[in-house]
Amino acid sequence: MEMPAPDPKILERKPHLLARLRTVLPEDALIHDISETRAYECDALTAYRCPPMVAVLPASTQEVSDVLRICHEEGVPVVPRGSGTSLAGGALPTEDSVILGVARMNDVLETDYDNRIIRVQTGRTNLSVSGAVEERDFFYAPDPSSQLACAIAGNIAMNSGGAHCLKYGVTTNNLLGVTMVMMDGTVVEIGGAHLDAGGLDLLGVICGSEGQLGVVTEATLRILRKPEGARPVLIGFDDNAVAGECVSDIIKSGILPVAIEFMDRLCIEACENFAHAGYPKCEALLIVEVEGSEAEIDSQLGKIIEIAKRHNPVELRESGSAEESAKIWLGRKSAFGAMGQLNDYMCLDGTIPVSELSMVLRRIGELSKEYGLPVGNVFHAGDGNMHPLILFDANKPGDLEKCEAFGADILRLCVDAGGCLTGEHGVGIEKRDLMLHQYNPQDLEAQMAVKDVFDPQWLLNPAKVFPLGSSAPRRSA
Amino acid sequence: MTPESETELAQIVAGLNGPVCIIGGGTRGAAGSAPALDMSRLTGIHLYEPGALTLVAAAGTSLAEVDAALDAEGQRLAFEPMDHRVLLGTRGAPTIGGVVAANISGPRRVQAGACRDFLLGVRFVDGNGTVIKNGGRVMKNVTGYDLVKLMAGSWGTLGVLSEVSLKVLPKPEAIQTLAIAVPDAARAVGLMSDALGSPFEVSGAAYDPERGQVFARIEGFADSVSYRADRLSELLARWGDITRPEAPDLWSDIRDVRGFADRAGDVWRISCRPSDAPGLAQKAGADALLFDWGGGLIWALMSEGSDLRARLGGFDGHATLVRSNQATRAQLGMFHPQPAPLAAIQQALRTRFDPQGRFNPGLMG
Description:
The complex is a heterodimer of chains A (477) and B (365). Chain A has 18 helices and 18 strands. Chain A is α+β, with helices and mostly antiparallel strands and 477 residues long. Chain A folds into four domains: 226 residues, Uridine Diphospho-n-acetylenolpyruvylglucosamine Reductase, domain 3; 106 residues, Alpha-Beta Plaits (2-Layer Sandwich); 74 residues, Alpha-Beta Plaits (2-Layer Sandwich), CATH 3.30.70.2740; 36 residues, no CATH class. Chain A has a seven-stranded antiparallel beta sheet, with helices on both faces. Chain A has a five-stranded antiparallel beta sheet with strand order 5-6-10-8-9. Chain A has a four-stranded mixed beta sheet with strand order 1-2-4-3, covered by helices on one side. Chain B has 365 residues and is α+β, with helices and mostly antiparallel strands. Chain B folds into three domains: 165 residues, Uridine Diphospho-n-acetylenolpyruvylglucosamine Reductase, domain 3 (2-Layer Sandwich); 82 residues, Alpha-Beta Plaits (2-Layer Sandwich); 75 residues, Alpha-Beta Plaits (2-Layer Sandwich). Chain B contains 14 helices and 17 strands. Chains A and B meet through β9, α8, α9, α11 and α17 of A and β7, α7, β9, α8 and α9 of B.
């Protein structure tokens, strides 16, 4: 992965920068020794590593503002970081950058059940937002699978989703307001506890901008009352295409399940061997979960089972209890671990129109044979968000490169099928160079124009999102 | 100027030598005095997949055509866009592009989300006449910056929409409304907070002070609606007497603020923190009020020329002047002034997308 060469002039001025940062931060918030900056050399895309010049851990919006103002004046790039769980390299530093971690800012600032909002500092983890409102049976809906560790800051940067977004939407649909620090240190307030922010929808464009427009330090989030209950049904099929048709028929019937998860044969077998969830041997498996009271769940599952039966399933297992639900979910939830037992893997994140499911799965199968690398498919079928897992051997020379080429082919396939490169992980560095497959230069120019407005010198999270060739004139300006 | 294709639209914009007003159906009352760029002939549903809950249409397609296509498959636009013709006395056929450009959402916004939450993709022409696409037709898409949201509610100030892609949802089998008698706004908002904070998926919560009633709506499969209506009635019984009115137009009347339609005065729309609503309503000194979104949206009928924003002072939210004479609109402005740093960002974005200031001059600051 190509990254821009570090600016030697910035590296030379490191002592000067440190001296200035010391005037605004306590010593323990300033990390500059190589033995310690190495902790920030990568995120969850571990194939790429580069220790930053400095890492800072501010404890307040004011400290974030001070740091950004100084870096802006010194012309030093800044890479914002939540918990570092990005699978796309969204928090990968450059050698001449300052990593700005928000991990120390994790307070709940306001909990307001009457207005159904919570205001938090963005270093707080996703799951602990729900944890803070659990006592009154409320929750924060977006649930990325890294939710135990990932920070709200990163969720906002990547517009994170999760398994339950078919019903509840992704981060952008649950974010009402932010406090954001611009690269020059200016602090802006956008939106609040009201439902629609005034003026242009700046909140909408900041969410998902991968930390390139500003550093969000506080967020007002919608919280929802928990449903009375939830239960899944497991449905097995002997044909991927039929499973796809079943998904489409469920959606058309008017039922809005909270999740529809899909696994193919390789994943089913891997999960079964790993977790012994009692999955059937078949080509495709759906887990469909609905919410409500016991009677409502019975009624909805009844309708789903009726639809499924029209498609000749090889297995139909309705959960009747919390234990049975847990067992059905056990395999799915251990999918990544199970695949990791087989080999190293790369997880992709393209989205396709649900109607193209069988074509895309067939083509992925063909590509798998051509590349000689196995691939398992597990994904959120209701919204077409695929997670193909390509198995490879990191210790075998050339395998990573082969895997990356295979992955790029799959993502191009998703785009050609009418979908997109990334449904919830973000572009980061990982998919940066594929952007021109989805967008033409004018489309990218319009996106880069937004960056020009928020960060005219292109100092925030450099070399992400846009192909280096496309952003070069701006980055060197 | 009446383009019939996106290519023609791009050519027209590239050849402009003065400002234009972008007009869909012309029903939303935002048109200024510049020559019209009439979008009503850029029409057609390009794609509709009921099984994927996706519809793609040219921006000038009438809302009626979109609704009819969805209705035939038992689906709908869940964000329930208001029909401004009722309140403004405008004519013409609202277009899907107009709905998106103005981010028009109705009572179901509290539960389902706003228009912008259902917008999956856009194609538009910027001020230079360049065609730009963003987003697409799939429900989860974080590829690059989300200009889709930025275009929703930009009132044409960044570009002319040529195509929009929307997520649609199934129509419910049954609808049930509870009406609860309450004496004042404070109790009404408290009640609505209880309803919206319940697990019963309330899809509308409005308060009409003149009728002295709160309305709470539940939608879904018949057996589920009946169950939830019963449970919600139990939960809300402490607030007042509950009835179940059979009024088919109740929610479209709330959506369209029909109660203010034939009454003189300016109409304002206040977006606020719901619990602030009773206090703000008191400060407004309005002739009539209607509370939607559990109190998060206040419609205020004011005597002509009243500066509502001055009366409200600073608050968490904003006030839009929806109906007035030209002089009041010129004096007070349709949109709430933004704080200086945000106004600067907004202006800079506009200059980037429309460097020569062709689109809807005077609108949105």
